[in-house]
Amino acid sequence: MLAPNQDNHPVVGIIALVSGLFVFAIQDVIIKQFSAQYSVLQLVIVRGIVAVIAIGIIVAIKFGPSGFRVYQPLRIGAKGFLAFFSYLAYYLAIASLPLADVVTITFSAPIMVVLLSSLLVGEPVGLRRWLTTLSGFTGVLIAVGFEGHLVNIATAFAFLAALTYALNSIMARYISSRDNPWTVTFYFSVTHFAGGLLSYLMLSLFPISPQTGHPSFDFLFREWQWSSPVDVAIMASLGLVATAGFYCLNKAYLMARAATVAPFEYSYVIWAVLFGYLFWEEIPAAATVLGLLIMIGSNLFALRSEIIKIRTTD
């Protein structure tokens, strides 16, 4: 049976996670803005090329040839492909739904992390954690059901993003601390780019009309185009943003237990609501706010219980 990484530095993990989510919030604004004009795979591939080159240069300078040595290539590769599917599904969701609504749905990921941490990694999950997980999932149902989002395929994409993100987070616990976070981020980006390229090649073999009438599918099937040097430069800059974001998220879940770090995923809410309002005048519905507050409250309560437990055992 595979043994999980036992390193636990919660402060480092939390700071890395919060920083990474802020960086990705900036990226999400750019991608949502481009979703009405470009192909999501075009953005993923251009971003991936720049990210792989940037991270490769950093690894070469900091560590030399030995920096590209990896001890667990299959696990890191699996983690990268899970992340690719997670972000792809998330991008397709934000093309159709308000940013705050998508964030609310995908924030069922920490709930899934708790469940999968118990089932796959064997991390202890007490009765309080199970109860708060159940209440958090109730918050998701409230946020989704009241606004009729269940009939929108973008909601399914958001839930798929949550599930694959949770699996990606759990996979990090099976990566040994012998693998440097920068090395993990490099191969993580390589597999992320490979996922985008393979998806593009598969779609090119089975051409589908780029105009389906649904924003999510249009974003996926739209033909590639190059509009202006400014847009191309912005696409390329996403690679640098992804470099910083991927490193922070990888470091977060490599340095701390998933159940400890996961609740701080909610720091993204601040940026999602703020940017959604500033750029698209999106105001979250009452049901979205209620469901989100239930999820945040339940997970913060669980985190408080875990901190108390740690203090009493020290």
Offer a few descriptive terms.
globular, mainly alpha, 314 residues, disordered N terminus
Low-confidence stretches: 1-5
Q: Briefly note the structural class of the backbone.
A: mainly alpha
The first-to-last residue Cα distance is: 29 Å
Total strands: 0
Number of helical elements: 13
| Envelope shape | globular
Helix-strand topology string: HHHHHHHHHHHHH
Total number of distinct structural domains: 1
Strand content: under 5%
**Helix fraction?**
over 70%
Biggest sheet character: none
Gyration radius, in Å: 19 Å
Secondary-structure topology with pairs:
Elements: H1 10-34, H2 40-63, H3 73-94, H4 99-106, H5 109-121, H6 127-145, H7 153-172, H8 181-205, H9 215-221, H10 229-255, H11 258-261, H12 268-280, H13 286-313
Written description of the protein model:
This protein is mainly α and 314 residues long. It has one domain (10-313). It contains 13 helices and no strands. Helix 1 (10-34) runs antiparallel to helix 10 (229-255) and helix 8 (181-205) crosses helix 10 (229-255). Mean pLDDT is 79; it is low at 1-5.
